[in-house]
Every structure is written in C-alpha cells, then in structure tokens.
Amino acid sequence: MDMRLFEYALEIYKTRSFTKAANHLHIAQPSLSKQIAILEQELGVSLFDRKPGCPVEPTPDGLLFVKQAEKILQMRDDLKREILERKEGIRGELRIGSTAITGGHILPSLLKTYKEQYENVGIELIEESTEKLIDLTAKGVVDISILSLPIEDFRLNTKTMLTEPLYLVLPKEQQQWMPIKVKQIMSSSILIKQNTLPIENFANCPFILLKQGYGFRRTVLELCARGGFEPQIAYETSSIETAQSLVRHGLGITIAPEMVIHRSTYQTSLTYFKLDSNPTRTLVFTYKKERYLSMNARALIEIYEKTKLN
C-alpha cells in the first residue's frame, strides 16, 4: 500500500474536506478523490461519508484507518529521524515548550549551555498555557516541554526535574482585608521568619491567580481546597510577575514557587509566608510516549541533569 494514501486520508480527516486536503497536499481534487476511491476499493470499505454541503466525516472504518495511518506515518518519520541522527549526530531543530512562569527562570542558563555544546541545533521556543502545551506535545508539534505535575494525558511520558516549595505572597504594607493574626505577625520581621500559617487563614482574602489553562492555577486551587475553601478571585493573569505586581499594590494575595521568588524584582516590596502544609510543585520534562525522543531532546535532559549535580 502506497504510503501517500495514508497521508491523503489523514489530511482529509484533519480538514474535513477533499478540496482543502487537495490544496494542502498540492494535488488536484479529482485526483485525490480518485486515489481515495481506489484505496476504499482495495480495503473493501467506505472510509468517508460524502454529503453535499456538509463536512466530510469518517465512517467507523475510516476512523480506525486514519488513527492507524497516523501511527504508521509517525513511525516512518521517527525512523527517518533516528537513522539521520545516527549518521549526522546532534543537529537540526529542537522545539521546546514552556509556560512563562517556568521558562523565564529555567531555560536561559540551560539553553546557553546547550548552544555552547550544540551550536548546529536550531531552537524554537513555544510559550503557551499548560493546557495548550500538553496538547501540542501529545501531537508531536513540540519535541519536549517543561511543565508541572500532574500531567494526566496518557499520550505523554514525564521525567522529573525538581520539586520546590510554594510560598504565600502578601504586600509589605498591611491591608484592611488582611486577617488580624497576619497583621500581628507582619508587625515583626522576626516573627515572619519564625511563623508558618495555614492557608485557611486567608479564605476571605482576595486572590490573584493565573488564568484558566495554566497548571499552576490548578495547584493553587487544590491547595485552597485542602484548606476547606474556594478562593475569592480578584484578578487573573497569565504572568506570575504581573500577579506579584498586583500584590505589591495591595490588590490581593497570590502563591509563588521558590524559583520565582529568588529571582523576583519585587522581593524587597513583598512579604513571603511559609504555609504549614508545606506545599510544593514538581517540574518535569514532558514528551510524547509513542514517539522517538530525538537526540536533541535527550541532550537537553542530560545537560540539565549534569548542571543540577554541579
């Protein structure tokens, strides 16, 4: 069976149109229809329902065919890539996904070392929400992503990078909405360092969270849920730096991971509290389970692990 027929069927499935698929494949639409008809005759089944004026939909047999065709094409591409890498070594492209909250803190030094060792590798950074990156990684659009657990997509594998503590972030100045106990603790810098607080003390405070689709938002919501409350969300943002800036101006509180705190430009104008539940987040390298993990991606993991040990 001609491998091109797999590509044809998959493109029709993706576009839901013979005309659009033909344009993407750079072939004439009648020729595409003829090739699919020949394929259907060979298989003895109809792959697509063709109704005038309606999107083309796969039949049950067609859906089975395109899903298997996609796996076969991926295996073909992975084999070609692996053979080429064995011949030429580490070169080509590496597409790395990360969220803003993580990428800006982990990737600069990691990529500097990577480029020093593998200058022939072109790197493309893809910065999106956790939800979007999971999908792009599972589809093979992104080679490897740096995300936080949990990753619940069965199509993905993970490799642990680090686990770090989370802190409650408050403004330096006392605010009317702050609990009395917190105001008392904030009056003494010594007490701040000595005290830990339960998250439930802040049940009635305004929270500043990351937007829907970011994994860290889920981490904060689960932390509040364990404290027995649903946070009162005052503002939502896609940047932890923006969240801290809003806190600095007394507009609410937020939660931040340790790496962000250590490199924050707002350290001197914010107050950081430890929580008595000692919450953490775990970062992982994430990549597609059923695809060949390129030498480029494996080299990134190895460099990170060596750097961590030093």
List the helices and strands and how they pair.
Layout: H1 3-15, H2 18-25, H3 29-43, E1 48-49, E2 57-58, H4 60-88, E3 92-98, H5 100-117, E4 121-127, H6 130-138, E5 144-148, E6 156-171, H7 180-186, H8 189-194, E7 196-197, E8 206-210, H9 215-226, E9 232-237, H10 240-248, E10 254-257, H11 258-262, E11 270-275, E12 280-288, H12 295-309
Parallel strand pairs: 3-4, 3-5, 7-11, 8-9
Antiparallel strand pairs: 1-2, 5-12, 6-10, 6-11, 6-12
Keywords: DNA-binding, Transcription, Transcription regulation
Protein name: DNA-binding transcriptional LysR family regulator
GO molecular function: DNA binding
Description of the structure:
GO terms for molecular function: DNA binding. Belongs to the LysR transcriptional regulatory family. InterPro entries: LysR_HTH_N, LysR_subst-bd, WH-like_DNA-bd_sf, WH_DNA-bd_sf. This protein has 310 residues and is of the alpha/beta class. The chain has helices at residues 3-15, 18-25, 29-43, 60-88, 100-117, 130-138, 180-186, 189-194, 215-226, 240-248, 258-262, 295-309, and strands at residues 48-49, 57-58, 92-98, 121-127, 144-148, 156-171, 196-197, 206-210, 232-237, 254-257, 270-275, 280-288. The chain has 3 domains: 3-85, Arc Repressor Mutant, subunit A, CATH 1.10.10.10; 88-161 and 282-309, 3-Layer(aba) Sandwich (D-Maltodextrin-Binding Protein, domain 2), CATH 3.40.190.10; 163-281, Periplasmic binding protein-like II (D-Maltodextrin-Binding Protein, domain 2), CATH 3.40.190.10. Helices cover 47% and strands 23% of the residues. Strands 3, 4, 5, 6, 7, 10, 11 and 12 form an 8-stranded mixed β-sheet that branches. Strands 1-2 form a two-stranded antiparallel sheet. A two-stranded parallel sheet has the order 8-9. Helix 1 (3-15) crosses helix 4 and helix 5 crosses helix 12 (295-309).
